[in-house]
């Protein structure tokens, strides 16, 4: 503990900062060759819910010569306490200052965490920019945001693109081997590892409109940088003795990753593009993992994690086996999302043995026309059949996910959302569910993301998002049995801008941070005005940034190959315009997406 | 709240809460025991109702920041399990800082009436440099001489005063920045050690000031039940 208990009690939830949980690993730093601080730019309860960090923690600590420890973003009260005492940010396990580690690896899950990364660097006493750091840890980053690393490129020494567990030990080995060499040389040498992007080795040129693009690689650095991929999940390492958090985490359950990737091809979905092909874990492996994890953690819930759980080829038998093995001990199974069809609802029903709450369906758009544009292959009949099956099975609440501001969307599409909600409410009433809320619908603003067919699309402006949202909420104002929530348009605009920006955004991120931005994902601290000023001071006008991008022009992430070819994305963009569906390849048909699965050869 | 079915077999465990676990709130300690019991596969009775929970009953729980040497918890089991086996199966499955010390069987089918615990013994360590032993002794003597010791307490947004004096059975300085006290659990609303610190005119901690640490040494024995 870096602080005495007397002092630590001054902050909220001091258990966030003390470590020593079941499953945490503490090694003597004098007996290892490499110390690795695994950094998550959000608070404990969120960080501890992130599977990727648990995987990397287990992989790194499986090596006797590596000590991996955690460091999370503090709540501002703890940061203030550290500053008051003149103490730097420290790891949980041994309380070692972050600046004393060999490697500091950030997980970049959301753009809203960018300023928090800078904040953590400052709390650690490290210079923000890679070029200003001559000693101290090598700062790396991984996670989905790294498919467009440019906005954070000046702050990070090396990015890992793709599945981290595939590459992190190679990276560690190279850093162990290069110990004693100059920091900048050690960083450059990382570029030889497939999947690692070292920004210092790439030239950047400014283009009209204030954008900047990566124009070429130096010193034989790869172009493009190809993401790393775990091909065989059964052979991949998985934490069977995960850290059990001291205090309730956001996802307070044992997690089984049943599959990675999705090829349903929703055109807005970045995960469905950069995580191809689909890789399933076998039922045998999953059964063993479930037993091992549950008997270690003692959790009362087992969550099956994947982008589309119902798509696992053996999902039915898997659920039956898991229920049979664990339900008797009061352990509940949960599926994070349910495919919009009655079959999947039946599955959700089967697993909900102990506690039955709501069921989540994601139609995404309100009309067939728009669902065809986004390649969400679901009909109104599918939605009603799923809702009907859910009510029959005893679920009393249906959660619906929609997006607003999708490409080609009109007011008519928003009215379609109203129609769907009304039909489900009517169905509930006719099924004799007389009281209470039966539908909650969330309206998320569409955000065009890199490496998707919609990466060139314009984001709807604030006014349009606001109007479409009002069409839904005004129409349902008197509908007491449906609750509608929505995301803030200004926040969505900022996310779009950060997701699609180039290296020119770095000064804006730094300016926002210096103006006090951190923990931007928290309503308590989000301040879009501060960001607008920061962007203006860095010469980046927000409005121009959320418009459409030319399909024949360069993109800030052209040097990153995240799994899908630009040509495939262009074909999909074209099919979207003509409302043509592209059915799931299912690993048998090939659309030439570029992910390099066995079918493509 | 679910219904509370009777147990067939009760095992009481004495445990320490210290180290990193002292920062756990009571709900976190409860969850730790629930997970431990599940991990160990103990035949625990569950509450009935919509949200069944393992039936684990704590004696006068302590909160975030407090530690304890001999905390009590009763596990309601639905069949016999030797206390030594219960202890042995739970031991490796509790997190560091929740240390199980001993286990014994209890008679009856309902958990003990922990609300009848007569008193609790505490040590309080004040932030270093708060007050010398002699100063503390003086303050204790003055306080104990008073017929009434009013402490402020907020309840449902309203400030109200209560007399803590009857609850303070003993109070003494045991060193620089160190106090010991025995608090009556039966005399009206139970008084917390930190409230006694406040009544002594000493700082009780705030976001800008360090906190005193409360450490519970023991819980007084339950009265013999007729």
Count of β-strands of chain B:
10
By DSSP (H or I, 4+ residues per run), the number of helices of chain B equals: 4
Q: What is the top-level CATH class of the domain at 5-226 in chain A? A: Alpha Beta
Structural class of the secondary structure composition of chain A?
Answer: alpha/beta
Helix content of chain B: 10-25%
Arithmetic mean pLDDT of chain B: 92
- The chain-level structural class of chain B is alpha+beta
Oligomer: heterodimer
CATH class of the largest domain in chain B reads Alpha Beta
Compute the number of strand runs of chain A: 19
Strand content of chain B: 25-35%
CATH architecture designation of the largest domain in chain B: 2-Layer Sandwich
Structure overview:
The complex is a heterodimer of chains A (601) and B (226). With 601 residues, chain A is of the alpha/beta class. Chain A has a domain of 222 residues: Rossmann fold, CATH 3.40.50. A 6-stranded mixed beta sheet of chain A has the order 2-1-3-4-5-6, with helices on one face. Chain A is globular. The mean pLDDT of chain A is 94. Chain B is an alpha+beta fold and 226 residues long. Chain B has 2 domains: 107 residues, Pseudouridine synthase I, catalytic domain, N-terminal subdomain (Alpha-Beta Plaits); 103 residues, Alpha-Beta Plaits, CATH 3.30.70. In chain B, 19% of the residues lie in helices and 32% in strands. Chain B is built from 4 helices and 10 strands; from the N terminus they run E-H-E-E-H-E-E-H-E-E-E-E-H-E. In chain B, the strands form 2 sheets. In chain B, strands 1, 2, 3, 4, 5, 8, 9 and 10 form an 8-stranded mixed beta sheet that branches. In chain B, strands 6-7 form a two-stranded antiparallel ribbon. The longest helix of chain B has 15 residues. The mean pLDDT of chain B is 92. At the A-B interface, helix 1 and helix 9 of A face helix 1 of B.
